[in-house]
Design goal:
Length: 260
């Protein structure tokens, strides 16, 4: 009987420790996986740049002198530019409900990109580096952050607003848990397949879940909007961080570089 009780006690202690450590251990593995995916994405960029020396010779030219077909994954870049222009022209007419947010606009594999990532965010104030996926499906939000469908692709440019959603913590993982740390002036770096873009926090706001104004493209502006949950009592609202493109090229972290 004593051995049985001792065995049960050991099992209960082990179960308790397992429950206590489950979220931290899971979070560690997920953070490691995200870091590996970002590293793989960077390798794709470096290999593409090596195969396109002309692009690497003129940093930032993807959006200046060079035509997209002369750049790594140029067909994808052109398609994203066309898409951004089209949703602005039509007033984001297909942005009608939550389902429209979830749909990925592009199949990256079809354009020769050996990764699910379309880029990654670096947010110093939150001490986070997060992979970006296309389409705010539950699967993508469990893995990192995601660009909402029917908002601009994360390539920057005039008349764009790329809206990126993330969980306010997810099973012990940080993700956008510390989003309220962000203050006006804080930098947010967005790296895509072609270059790194710097945005600065302009303002923050608590909004209703069905407030679509946060997703709207503002004429002539280059914006990045971060969205997560905001809990107020029993009500779940949304916390939005509005960022604008930093026009001072000298403030780009390392400069505006092709396939950084």
């Amino acid at each position: 009987m004593r051995r049985l009780l001792t065995g049960l006690a050991v099992l209960l202690i082990a179960a308790g420790l397992g429950a206590l450590l489950y979220h931290p251990v899971t979070a560690w593995f997920q953070e490691r996986r995200r870091a590996q995916e970002i590293q793989h994405f960077q390798q794709i960029c470096w290999q593409a740049e090596a195969a396109h020396p002309a692009a690497g010779a003129s940093p930032g030219s993807a959006f200046r002198e060079e035509t997209p077909d002369a750049l790594p994954f140029g067909e994808l870049l052109q398609a994203m530019e066309d898409y951004n222009r089209e949703i602005f022209r039509t007033g984001q007419k297909d942005l009608v409900d939550a389902w429209s947010y979830e749909k990925p606009v592009f199949d990256l594999e079809a354009y020769g990109v050996d990764s699910d990532l379309v880029g990654y965010l670096e947010i110093p104030a939150m001490e986070q580096r997060l992979p970006i996926y296309l389409g705010a499906s539950q699967e993508n939000l469990d893995r990192g952050v995601a660009v909402l469908g029917q908002t601009s692709m994360p390539i920057g440019g005039e008349d764009t607003n790329c809206v990126v959603a993330g969980h306010r913590g997810n099973g012990g993982e940080a993700i956008f848990r510390e989003i309220q740390r962000l203050q006006p002036g804080d930098p947010v770096y967005l790296t895509n397949l072609w270059r790194e873009l710097t945005y600065r926090v302009e303002s923050t706001q608590v909004i209703q879940p069905d407030d679509l104004s946060v997703l709207a493209i503002q004429e002539g502006e280059d914006r990045l909007t971060l969205i997560s949950c905001y809990y107020q009592g029993q009500e779940t609202l949304r916390y939005a961080v509005y960022c604008v493109r930093d026009g001072n090229a000298s403030l780009e972290k390392g400069g505006e570089t092709i396939c950084r």
